[in-house]
Amino acid sequence: MTQHTQRPTSDEEPDEQQSGAADGFDSLLPGLRRRDFMKAGAAVGGLSGLAGCTSLLSEEEEGTVSAAPDHSIPPGEMDEYYAFLGGGQSGDIRVVGLPSMRELIRIPVFQRDSGRGYGHDDESREMLEEAGGYTWGDTHHPRISQTDGDYDGRFAYVNDKANGRMARIDLTYFETDAIVDIPNQQGTHGSCAQLPDTDLIFGVGEFRAPIPNDGTGDLHDPDEYGAVLAAIDPESMNVEWEVLVDGNMDNGDGSKEGRYFFTTGYNSEGAVTEKGMTRSDRDDVKAFDIPRIEAAVEAGDYETINEVPVVDGRKDSSLNQGDDPVVHYIPTPKSPHGISVTPDNKYAIASGKLDPTASVIQIDKIDEVDDPTDAIVGQPKLGLGPLHTAYDGRGHAYTSLFIDSQVVKWDIEEAVEADAGSESPVIEKIDVHYNPGHLIASESYTEDPAGDWLISLNKLSKDRFLPVGPQHPENDQLIYIGDDEAGMEHVKDSPAHAEPHDASICHRSKLDPAKTYDPDDLDLEYTDEGEETMERVGDDRVEIEMYSTRNKYGFQEMTVTEGDTIEMQVTNIETTSDMLHSVAIPEHDVHMRVAPQETRKVTFTADDPGVYWIYCAHFCSALHLEMRSRLIVEPEE
Predict the structure, then answer these.
(1) Positive or negative: CA dihedral 361, 362, 364, 368
(2) Residue 544 to residue 533: CA distance in whole angstroms
């Protein structure tokens, strides 16, 4: 069992380390507490010596009565929530059921996936190619579209931290349907929306680079580098405008009434090395005033760069002088990381990362104060390495503590009333395993969080699962937060493929996934049984339209000539849910999945003469192995 104690902050814990601990783990005392052990590990190089030291981990509490509702889901029963988790370097979104923590499906976004046929049919392959043609992505921040401050179940949006892209996922079919390669931006870290109605999607550019980055300027001069916030139309997925800022940006979140979009930032120094980026003791939260930015675009106060209007939002720009700045720079302790807006829209809370405090920014003060720091109305001391904050809707915030390997629960209004640096707002801390990055509570990003479940997305697992070699799984931990009297309760560990980041949790009642495709939602013509055609177009092109159903394809064989371009369009005419078929053609790199009532198309070249079996790779019936067709490629005369 986990602890439910009101703990002192980490720097008040007894120092049980020997002075030589920094030289290696062998110098640690046998009785060293796990919390101090983890801190020592962080100092000695990323906890490299932790594996196998299970005797130093948290003790089990006996006789504790669980306050959490039943989190085991019996066979045949459904979870209450969908959780959409960024898959990190996998480039996908993991969909997990809560509270079971069962992985339901993975949605490929920025990479090919043969199981889904994604990147193999013409439409998805062209979408990936037109969005830069990269072979991988790094998904961090899934966000579900909202109407009136609540999830509407239409779309999810997610960023590509690696390649500066944003994608949209259609939640009717749980499929990626649009990707935009954002101009003037390297490394899209945050992805959040203008609320309450998802009127814009924001891509938060992290890496500073020359703008335009075409070699025309002095590439060695960091003063010519910049980072931009990109505003994307959620329907067209076109970039509407961008704002150039000082420093690097990190995470972001929007105010609930639609006026501001907030980002954290680091490297206010504008440096290019770690030493240079950490000279100052302050960085900035940036509050983008959306109506003023749009007014500047309307007035023509921008420069067009790579066909996008770019508004100058740097500190010394003309648009930031006077009483109506387009971007407010709010100084906070060094390198703030996560930022999120409270459900009541009163505060934006930025986590310190390199400082043990969080900064509580009162939103309605931002445009009223002469000194931007006066908008910071609370700065509670939470622990070591605060990164991200979620909410339960009862006035409590939950912040991940990376170095302490804990989640801390604290009272927001008490933090506003207390002196800066006070620990009094801290209600409770719970150990997690280990080094949490993001965390998310049920519907925390909406105006009305559910306040029952929280997932801590931990960067390290170490001794929590069976060993699988040097790369351990990550560890997503489910914590019950619905009983303020009993306290937080850790109820489940779940291994995850590297590297999960942020997540959104949505109640199942707000989603309505389709069981089969609606042919009217597709651009391709439906081909029913008896409507199949095969036609030669010109000298070297063959166009095929056929159906698939259990045990057979529309054509039992197809004969073409060496060198022909083959355009093959297939409709799955099944009406039964979950009855998938595919078109797999070995040696031609074709694997096209076709779901019930779906039509897909693939184009390839028949390079070599011979006989090539076409088969269905999704098991569909007792005669699955007999479901075949032949592609006969005759030698060119």
Answers:
(1) negative
(2) 6
At residue 306, the 3 state secondary structure works out as: coil
Residues of the chain with CATH 2.130.10.10: 81-507
3-class SS at 374? helix
Q: Residue by residue, what is the 3-state secondary structure of 33-61?
A: CHHHHHHHHHHCCCCCCCCCCHHHCCCCC
Q: Which residues contact 324 (CB under 8 A, 6 or more apart)?
A: 289, 292
Task: Give yes or no for a cis peptide into 196 (omega within 30° of 0).
Answer: yes
**If DSSP states are collapsed to H, E and C, what string results for 100-148?**
CCCEEEEEECCCCECCCCECCCHHHHHHHHHCCCCCCCCECCCEEEEEC
pLDDT at 103 over 90: yes
Residue 64 is predicted with a pLDDT of 57
- Residue type at position 78: M
Structure token digits, residue 137? 């992505």
Count of alpha carbons within 13 angstroms of residue 484, beta-carbon side: 12
- Where in the chain is CATH 2.60.40.420? 519-634
CA distance 109 to 128: 9
In tens, the pLDDT along 363-388 reads 999 999 999 999 999 999 999 999 99
- Going by C-alpha positions, the residue among 243, 248, 160, 164 that lies closest to residue 206 is 248
- Of 140, 54, 69, the closest CA to residue 499 belongs to 140
* Continuous H helices in 259-342: 274-277, 290-298
Q: Is the pTM of this model over 0.85?
A: yes
Task: Compute how many other C-beta atoms are within 10 angstroms of the C-beta atom of residue 25.
Answer: 17
What span, in angstroms and rounded, lies between the C-alpha atoms of 164 and 197? 24
Which one-letter DSSP state was computed for residue 292?
H
- The two tokens of residue 377 are 């109305």
Residue 54 backbone phi and psi in degrees, to 5:
-70, -20
**For residue 66, what pLDDT is reported?**
82
Q: Using CA atoms, how far apart are residues 181 and 166, in angstroms rounded to an integer?
A: 7
**Domain 519-634: assigned CATH number:** 2.60.40.420
Cis ω before 266 (30° cut-off from 0): no
Token pair of 322 as six digits = 């006077």
**In 461-542, which residue ranges form alpha helices assigned H by DSSP?**
none
Pairing of strands 150-160, 541-549: unpaired
What's the topology of domain 81-507? Methylamine Dehydrogenase; Chain H (2.130.10)
Between CA 409 and CA 390 the distance in angstroms is 10
